[in-house]
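Re: [ENG-882] Designed sequences occasionally contain unexpected residues at chain ends

Forwarding the minimal case from QA. Structure tokens:
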């Protein structure tokens, strides 16, 4: 049993490292895109309209074909694969694909018809005082709606490939999306302004789907022109997806509330929270999403084969690895936020005030990085057990609290004379932290424990190493603050990372030894 669990852990580690490399590439591409976009448009009116309009297509994608579908589809599809039912698996995939395209297309059509009402009364009522900004948001929304259909198809293809233990190409898809937007801002925007960036979104969505098709074809797919209403597996996906869909809807509602509230705050607030949240998600994607994506098929297989002890061990190892990576990332973002933002974005239309707007929001978002990472992995563990109800109910409670706290914290920040969009970020971190605690407690009860001592030891070790890292960072910032942002940011990342690594090494943390052995083997293979 121990050998099986160890093999599963190594399999997840290999897959997670592969996905992490792809996510790092995606993050670098995303940084380049964001640098170019903010240099061209800053945090002014056009960027505000774009960020508000993009919320609609993102919502459609996330509701039907994002995390909601993947969390319901992958466990069901994987269960058929491990039972050698290839025909049943491909009938399920075909039916879900046809339903997704139909539903998203109808939703996009409705959104196109009611675009004026969506912008005026739901999305950004604060824009009503500026008719030019409001009309621009409407135009951009219409341009970007087709991207929701393309993303929906791509999301399902990603689920099929992950279920077949194909991770690298699906993890590269965000890079292709970013390249589409880079094309839009560099080639199209000089001619047609912010509309060029909107068309870049559509082009990027097409690339997001297209890059996965060759890998999909190699899976010897069988397409069936069915909707599958008579298939029990489709009913299972719908049953699993329904509560998760509700949970995603609540999350998206929170984003809409934040956009609505920020539209009523000083100009630049919408862009400030969007850019800061994106920066926080970069380490979250590289750390938590890479581990969670790699772990879900393995956890699903272990649960389907009733290997519960292996399931416990796999989950504990995944959580421990995530904690060791996310804690220093959170403190690093908090301490280096201003030089990093200035280094990355402060040029062109993105001025010093823009840096202050984004840095203020990032401070409060970074506080919640560990919570976001915990939720990512814990939720997928529940999904692997075909339990979407529990994480969704917890998520609904947390995001409902988020909405209330967004309004409350914004008012408190106003009264304190602070920029109010920071309250929106703090509300998100606070609610997500409580969500993570709730999920861990419920999973502990569900599994009658899952190697809690091993996880707590990881928390303790990560905490000690993070304190040592923070002391080194504080000393570096005090010495180098008069120098360029490049020196402060890059030097800080290097010094902080090295200090954290050495601290873990001195404490004998086993994950560090695994990394060293893997690195030696990698470089030895290169030398050969």
């Amino acid at each position: 049993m121990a050998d099986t669990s160890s093999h599963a852990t190594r399999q997840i580690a290999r897959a997670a490292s592969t996905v992490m490399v792809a996510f790092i590439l995606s993050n670098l591409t995303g940084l380049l895109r964001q640098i170019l976009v903010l240099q061209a448009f800053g945090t002014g009116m056009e960027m505000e309209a774009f960020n508000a309009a993009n919320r609609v297509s993102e919502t459609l994608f996330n509701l039907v074909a994002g995390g909601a579908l993947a969390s319901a589809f992958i466990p069901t599809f994987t269960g058929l694969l491990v039972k050698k039912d290839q025909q049943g698996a491909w009938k399920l995939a075909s039916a879900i694909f046809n339903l997704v395209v139909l539903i998203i297309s109808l939703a996009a059509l409705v959104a196109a018809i009611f675009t004026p009402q969506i912008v005026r009364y739901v999305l950004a009522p604060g824009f009503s005082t500026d008719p030019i900004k409001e009309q621009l948001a409407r135009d951009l929304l219409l341009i970007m709606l087709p991207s929701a259909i393309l993303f929906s198809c791509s999301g399902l293809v990603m689920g099929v490939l992950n279920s077949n233990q194909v991770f690298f190409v699906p993890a590269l898809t965000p890079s292709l999306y970013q390249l589409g937007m880079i094309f839009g801002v560099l080639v199209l925007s000089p001619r047609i302004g912010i509309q060029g960036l909107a068309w870049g979104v559509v082009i990027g969505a097409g690339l997001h789907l297209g890059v996965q098709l060759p890998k999909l074809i190699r899976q010897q797919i069988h397409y069936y022109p069915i909707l599958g209403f008579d298939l029990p597996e489709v009913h299972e996906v719908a049953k699993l997806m329904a509560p998760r869909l509700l949970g995603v809807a609540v999350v998206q509602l929170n984003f809409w509330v934040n956009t609505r509230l920020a539209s009523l705050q000083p100009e630049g607030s919408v862009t400030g929270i969007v850019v800061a949240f994106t920066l926080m998600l970069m380490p979250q994607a590289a750390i938590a999403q890479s581990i969670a994506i790699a772990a879900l098929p393995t956890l699903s297989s272990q649960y389907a084969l009733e290997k519960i002890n292996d399931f416990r061990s796999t989950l504990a190892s995944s959580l421990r690895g995530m904690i060791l990576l996310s804690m220093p990332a959170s403190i690093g973002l908090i301490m280096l936020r201003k030089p990093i933002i200035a280094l990355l974005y402060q040029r062109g239309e993105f001025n010093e005030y823009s840096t202050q707007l984004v840095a203020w929001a990032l401070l409060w978002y970074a506080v919640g990085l560990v919570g976001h990472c915990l939720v990512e992995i814990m939720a997928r563990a529940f999904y692997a057990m075909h339990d979407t109800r529990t994480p969704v109910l917890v998520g609904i409670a947390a995001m409902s609290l988020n909405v209330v706290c967004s309004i409350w914290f914004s008012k408190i920040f106003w009264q304190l004379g602070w920029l109010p969009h920071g309250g929106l970020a703090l509300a998100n971190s606070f609610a997500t932290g409580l969500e993570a605690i709730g999920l861990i407690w419920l999973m502990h009860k569900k599994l009658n424990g899952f190697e809690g001592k091993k996880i707590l030891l990881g928390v303790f070790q990560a905490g000690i190493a993070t304190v040592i890292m923070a002391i080194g960072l504080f000393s570096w910032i005090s010495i180098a603050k008069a120098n360029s942002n490049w020196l402060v940011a890059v030097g800080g990342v290097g010094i902080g990372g090295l200090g954290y690594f050495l601290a873990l090494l001195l404490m004998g943390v086993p994950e560090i030894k695994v990394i060293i052995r893997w690195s030696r083997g990698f470089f030895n293979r290169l030398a050969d």
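QA comment: On inspection the terminal residues look reasonable. The radius of gyration is 23 Å. Proposing we downgrade this to a documentation issue.
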